[in-house]
Specification:
This protein is of the alpha+beta class. 28% of the residues lie in helices and 26% in strands. The longest helix is centred in the C-terminal third of the chain and has 19 residues.
Length: 305
């Protein structure tokens, strides 16, 4: 199994921020992954790092990256994918077979594990709609367990993995037969929407920064609070949509956290609404980051160890 010491993760993150990580492990199979989880019980697990802000001061612990676990099978309408597979790849593969239900995945760069953890979704579809079952490593007991959709506690951008210490090993989806043309045209529509409404990865970002409050839009609340004008150090709010932060190439994790706090405070002051962060934080916090994270993450049910 590939293990790297003092590894620069910055280039692997969509935010292009982050210092050195003491140890990064790259398992290539479920067996290697569970072995790594046993060997490094406190390791942080990431997929494609498109929803994670890594400290500029790095991380003094172990990080397991699943990006080399990319196997998948398609049997009839049933698809099983390992946690490290990228959503767009799976979306395209099932489209070729005339299988519908994962068209949303083409539009953003998460891994299957990260997407199950988050119950990721877009364009009227979400993981919960087609997820049938998955295999998980239970970090409390050290056992591999299978959970069905009914046991996943899926709701908006959350799953049971955020409440219990469960690591996604693989996921099985039940899809629907449709014509490949129809599926691909929906995928094209989704991509087209992205081009106009969301920043591309050429502008380093991590997708939506805040979750939408119930029956409301974080982007709209932020825009009406003047957030499009906000900039701190090398980080600024995207001029086309106020729920995105762009790193101009020089941002530190502190710049980004300060900007997040400014955005959260602006919505609280203008609307009396506390918006919750969607993005996860990993690494060594300096004193100021410690203070900011306490405020930003105060409502998070459980942070992964
Ligand atoms: C340009 C852009 C657009 C985006 N658009 C959307 C969108 O429309 N909808 C949407 O939902 N999201 C969107 N995102 C956010 C992101 O892609 C999703 O949240 C995705 O699910 C994160 O996957 P990841 O592998 O990158 O997760 P990571 O950033 O690697 O990890 C995120 C969290 O998931 C946990 N995790 C990762 N893998 C596992 C695993 N195997 N088991 C347990 N926990 C795990 C991590 O510990 C961490 O807490 C967007 C991001 C970008 C950059």
């Amino acid at each position: 199994m590939q293990v790297e010491e003092d590894f620069e993760v910055k280039k692997l993150t969509s935010f292009k921020v982050g210092g050195k990580v003491k140890r990064v492990i790259f398992p290539e199979s479920i067996a290697e992954f569970t072995e790594a989880l046993q060997r490094y019980p406190d390791a942080f697990v990431c997929g494609n790092m498109t929803n994670t802000l890594v400290s500029t001061d790095g991380f003094d612990g172990a990080l397991i990256l699943t990006t080399k676990m990319t196997n998948f099978t398609i049997e009839g309408t049933t698809v099983t994918a390992e946690c490290g597979l990228k959503g767009p790849k799976l979306s395209q593969a099932v489209a070729e077979k005339g299988l519908s239900g994962l068209e949303f995945m083409v539009a953003f760069p998460g891994s299957i594990g990260g997407e199950v953890f988050m119950n990721a979704g877009a364009h009227g579809q979400a993981i919960k709609d087609t997820f049938v079952k998955g295999q998980f490593y239970d970090r409390e007991t050290g056992n591999v367990v299978t959970l069905t959709n009914a046991e996943m506690d899926f709701s908006y951008r959350t799953s049971i993995c955020q409440k219990r210490n469960l690591v996604v090993l693989n996921a099985t989806f039940e899809l629907e037969n449709k014509s490949s043309d129809e599926i691909k045209s929906l995928m094209q529509e989704n991509l087209q929407f992205r081009h106009t409404h969301q920043p591309s990865l050429a502008l380093p970002n991590c997708g939506s920064v805040f979750r939408n409050p119930e029956n409301n839009s974080a982007g709209r609340l932020l825009e009406q609070s003047g957030a499009k004008e906000f900039r701190i150090g090398g980080a600024h709010v995207w001029e086309n949509h106020a729920n995105f932060i762009i790193n101009d190439g020089t941002a530190t994790s502190t710049d980004i956290l300060e900007l997040m706090l400014k955005m959260q405070n602006a919505v609280k002051e203008n609307f009396g609404i506390f918006i919750n962060l969607e993005v996860r934080y990993l690494g060594n916090k300096n004193k100021r980051e410690e203070e900011i994270c306490k405020i930003l993450y105060q409502n998070l049910i459980k942070t992964q160890k």
